[in-house]
Amino acid sequence: MDGIVTTLGRQATVDRLHEVEQLRDCSRAQLDEVARLAERVQVGEGEVLAREGRIGREFFLILSGTVGVTQAGRRVNTLGPGDFFGELAALNPGPRNATVTALSEVDVLIIGPREFAAMAGVPGFRDALFKSMAARLRTVDARLAAALDDQRSTAPGGEPDPSPGG
Amino acid sequence: MQMGVETDGDGRAEPGHLHGVPWFAACTEEQLREVARLAERLHVQAGEVILREGRLGRELFVILSGTATVTRDGRVVNVRGSGDYFGELAAIEAAPRSATVTATTDLDVLIIGPREFEAMMEIPGFRNALMKGMSRRIREADDKLAAYADREEAWAPYPPGGSETV
Description:
The complex is a heterodimer.
Chain A: H1 2-18, H2 28-37, E1 39-43, E2 48-50, E3 59-64, E4 67-71, E5 74-79, E6 84-85, H3 87-91, E7 99-102, E8 106-111, H4 113-119, H5 123-154
Antiparallel strand pairs in A: 1-8, 2-7, 3-6, 3-8, 4-5, 4-7
Helix pairs in contact in A: 1-2
Chain B: H1 15-18, H2 29-38, E1 40-44, E2 49-51, E3 60-65, E4 68-72, E5 75-80, E6 85-86, H3 88-92, E7 100-103, E8 107-112, H4 114-120, H5 124-146
Antiparallel strand pairs in B: 1-8, 2-7, 3-6, 3-8, 4-5, 4-7
């Protein structure tokens, strides 16, 4: 009986994954693979999914609901259906550097680090993951450059710009 | 490519060139042969601009020997040497180059085009190393940004739909 319940649960999860924008390039078989690797959990409003400073290796993919992301108590982002988080901790062990709290009832897939490596091999998901990480890297790089500019303009005697390369 | 590059020999990469590149350490011999088949080897002279900020380009580069300087807005942001790579963001998604890279010394590089990059993403050792490298860079940039935590503008909301650093 347990097996049947699990199968039905996975089928429902695949149906739900099929509606996720970020996974639209995944085939049915690939989505089934994702569902097989993941655990599906429902959490209530106010529950903390990841806490800044704590060790955690799980990766999360939101199926429905919204979560708030805070760093040092500041809200830095809100994520909704199809958004994912935790890939950095799944890839490189280290403390979480943000807290993620459910802002509503949240339906979420939780994927352990080993399963995450397998999931990253699913082509449809792989592309969404890499594009998201590339975008994130561009954002933090640009923000870092802006912060340095800011520091330079406010700190007298900052070193002059090196001449442009090439 | 928009640079004057000289091919060294027939420009073909051999698996032997890839030993000692940490990025490929997790690849099997067979996978290394596949990487070598997909990559081209080029010699770049000191002073040449390999890629320029703001320009389009999809190639990924791996330095086999020599050093290159990475600049943004004319400011040196990084120095890359043997075994390091650059250009991966544009290889992942078509977007203008986020930095200029100039050969500081004569360089021996592997160049991997977008189509070949797609094929390389099927190699788990390569894909995992790329993911971990990107994840580490995001964490490092985030850590540096945390140093500016008292500056409000450093914490502007992340773009929606992106991944989060947790």
